[in-house]
């Protein structure tokens, strides 16, 4: 059995860790409500612009980068949203695992992925393993603002709009953690660009002349209703202006929901770590008491043995 001094040292160190874990849990608890509200507040705008882009794209017959690039190019951009700090359980490791799986699938499909990393933990992971990273961003995962979303979207917009001969990409994927509730956070992979267009049902009886319908008209194809748009000055210019805003708004929403997920993961992880530290302190205390009792029993045995020996010598 270990010495009492060793048990006391382990108990003291575990109690110090318990205080740190508890403090981290309290900090995360104080931040989670604001992070959740900010993420939920950004979602309606992002969803609205996403559905508007899909509706606009479904009613245009032109070729535009937002719908797909015509040139042959197998380069693909992948953005992984990790964290700046640790103590968040499996938050970053889950993102890295899904990112690696996506990169492997792209490689198997004959594509060349270009990695973009957001968060100090992910940057350190890929830097240590010598993986080429196109661009990195650090220091904003706790409270991502519009400025960092704009920087990321500008970088990816430039990469997407470049021609293939200059190293441009044809697709853009993002890997992030979606905040569902305080207990559940799910890693998701979505394709940002090009936008997937839901084609209308060809079986609809009667072909609608899109050019003759007003801008507030609504026609039903299958089970969905889509608004029809008239574009001014032109559909190309409208899509040119909306593409950067679409990319920035969706990236900003992903950053915010990832921040909320990170805070929730950190709170859950620190709560579990605090409970484990307390259980370990209780277990070590029992072992310390058992060691102390064994030491006392041994000392009593030695005293009684010595007394018996002295009595035998006197007789």
UniProtKB/TrEMBL annotation:
Function (record text): Produces ATP from ADP in the presence of a proton gradient across the membrane. The gamma chain is believed to be important in regulating ATPase activity and the flow of protons through the CF(0) complex.
Lineage per the UniProt record: Bacteria, Bacillati, Actinomycetota, Actinomycetes, Bifidobacteriales
Any one Gene Ontology molecular-function term assigned to this protein's record: proton-transporting ATP synthase activity, rotational mechanism
Keyword field contains Glycoprotein: no
BP terms from Gene Ontology: proton motive force-driven plasma membrane ATP synthesis
Keywords: ATP synthesis, Cell membrane, CF(1), Hydrogen ion transport, Ion transport, Membrane, Transport
One GO cellular component term noted in the UniProt record for this chain: proton-transporting ATP synthase complex
Organism: Alloscardovia omnicolens F0580
Main location, first listed in the record: membrane
Protein name: ATP synthase gamma chain
Protein family membership: Belongs to the ATPase gamma chain family.
Entry annotated with the keyword Ribonucleoprotein: no
Leader peptide range in chain numbering: none
PANTHER family: ATP SYNTHASE GAMMA CHAIN, ATP SYNTHASE SUBUNIT GAMMA, MITOCHONDRIAL
Intracellular or extracellular location(s): Cell membrane; Membrane
Subunit structure: F-type ATPases have 2 components, CF(1) - the catalytic core - and CF(0) - the membrane proton channel. CF(1) has five subunits: alpha(3), beta(3), gamma(1), delta(1), epsilon(1). CF(0) has three main subunits: a, b and c.
């Amino acid at each position: 059995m270990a010495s009492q001094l060793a048990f006391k040292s382990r108990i003291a160190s575990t109690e110090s860790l318990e205080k740190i874990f508890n403090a981290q849990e309290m900090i995360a608890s104080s931040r989670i409500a604001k992070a959740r509200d900010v993420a939920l507040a950004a979602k309606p705008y992002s969803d609205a612009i996403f559905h508007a882009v899909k509706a606009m794209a479904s009613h245009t017959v032109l070729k535009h980068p937002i719908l797909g690039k015509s040139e042959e190019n197998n380069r693909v951009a992948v953005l992984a949203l990790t964290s700046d700090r640790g103590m968040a359980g499996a938050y970053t490791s889950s993102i890295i695992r899904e990112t690696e799986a996506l990169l492997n699938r792209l490689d198997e499909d004959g594509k060349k992925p270009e990695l973009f990393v957001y968060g100090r933990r992910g940057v350190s992971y890929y830097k240590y393993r010598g993986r080429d990273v196109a661009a990195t961003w650090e220091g904003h995962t706790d409270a991502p603002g519009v400025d960092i979303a704009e920087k990321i979207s500008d970088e990816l917009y430039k990469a997407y709009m470049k021609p293939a001969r200059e190293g441009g990409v044809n697709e853009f994927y993002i890997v992030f953690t979606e905040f569902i509730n305080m207990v559940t956070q799910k890693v998701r992979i979505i394709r940002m660009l090009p936008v997937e267009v839901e084609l209308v049902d060809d079986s609809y009886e009667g072909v609608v002349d899109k050019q003759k319908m007003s801008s507030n008209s609504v026609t039903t194809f299958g089970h969905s209703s889509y608004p029809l748009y008239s574009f001014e000055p032109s559909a190309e210019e409208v899509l040119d202006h909306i593409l950067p805003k679409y990319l920035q708004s969706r990236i900003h929403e992903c950053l915010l929901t990832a921040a909320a997920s990170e805070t929730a993961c950190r709170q859950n992880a620190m709560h579990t770590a605090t409970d484990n530290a307390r259980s370990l302190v209780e277990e070590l205390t029992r072992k310390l008491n058992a060691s102390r009792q064994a030491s006392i029993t041994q000392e009593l045995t030695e005293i009684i043995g010595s007394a018996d020996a002295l009595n035998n010598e006197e007789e």
